[in-house]
Specification:
This is superoxide dismutase. It is an enzyme of class 1 (oxidoreductase). Residues 5-150 form the Globin domain. Pfam families: Globin. This protein has 154 residues and is an all-alpha fold. It has one domain: Orthogonal Bundle (Globin-like). 75% of the residues lie in helices and 0% in strands. It has helices at 8-22, 25-39, 56-61, 63-81, 86-103, 109-126, 128-151. Helix 6 packs antiparallel against helix 7 (128-151). It is globular. It starts with 7 loop residues before the first helix and ends with a helix.
Length: 154
């Protein structure tokens, strides 16, 4: 379905929550990836640059990890800016999903992992309200990405 299931109030509070973590997009994006690679080491296999890195400290310093962390956060930021416009939102999510499904062949379960880690980080830094106001957004993103994967034959 192309309709977003978020009310105007939910969109506003989700944006407020996201802004807090997006202020430090590179550091927080890096923290999310480092946690993913550390807690789910199989996810490193998709990134040739990161494969040999075992210590969180080493990953944190890596330009590639930092660059990708920032990229992930700026993609989510684009989605968050378009939560009230499903056409524009899908215009961002669709090519991203297609690329990850067809070119990069990333298992879609990794999107849920990343989203859950973002929610964890929000809760640690800004508390439970921040986390809960962003939870619906992560569900929305993951649902749309999974739909795109299905269309691509996953």
């Amino acid at each position: 379905s192309s309709t977003m299931s978020l009310s105007e109030a939910e969109v506003q509070s989700a944006r407020g929550a996201w802004e807090k973590i997006y202020v430090d997009a590179e550091d927080n994006g890096t923290a999310v990836l480092v946690r993913m690679f550390t807690e789910h080491p199989d996810t490193k296999s998709y990134f040739t640059h990161f494969k040999g890195m075992d210590s969180a400290e080493e990953m944190k310093q890596s330009d590639q990890v930092r660059g990708h962390g920032k990229k992930v956060f700026s993609a989510i930021n684009d989605m968050v800016q378009h939560l009230d416009n499903s056409e524009a939102f899908l215009g961002i999510v669709t090519p991203l999903g297609k690329k990850h499904a067809t070119q990069l062949k990333i298992d879609p379960k990794n999107f849920r992992i990343i989203c859950d880690i973002i929610l964890q980080l929000m809760e640690e830094k800004f508390g439970g309200d921040c986390k809960s106001s962003f939870e619906k957004v992560t569900n929305e993103i993951c649902t749309h990405l999974n739909n795109i994967y299905k269309e691509e034959g996953w």
